[in-house]
Amino acid sequence: MSKSQIGPWRFVLTYAIGGLTEIGFSSGEDYILILSSSGRSVISLASREIIARDHEQPSYNADWIDLLQKAVRGIDILCDEWIQVVGLWGGSLNTHCSTGWSVNVRYEDQTEFAYIAQKESNIDVFIDKPITEIRAFGFSNTGRFLVLATGSDLSLYEYIK
Questions:
Q1: Where do the domains of the chain lie?
Q2: Which residues make Cβ contacts (< 8 Å) with residue 65, sequence separation at least 6?
């Protein structure tokens, strides 16, 4: 299968984001907040564009980071929302969704490979062999989106019925 379509999963976007450390979906799953070594970005899942960016570097004493809760305060349209994030700080996204799909990462010869599988077919389909370390992978809470985030980029798929 091509990268543009994996079963009902349509490839949506890849953004190069150097130093990516954490990602999180907004509560309504309309946006993704990305934390990197050079600040925060917000991607609109409707327009597929970066709609907000700040360049304040994360630090342990930043008032917009809650390390205990693994949460980051959003910016711009998300400025009033604390978003649960996953990545280098720990945590994980859902690896199974209600449509019967699952995602996993395998390590072969110290190389990471990402796969997606449907429970009924019992067959894994190769998604990607990232060139940098995988920081987060999995489904959004509703299962509408599948994300693979590495230290250098973010790839997103959307479930199309």
A1: 13-155
A2: 58, 59, 71, 72, 73
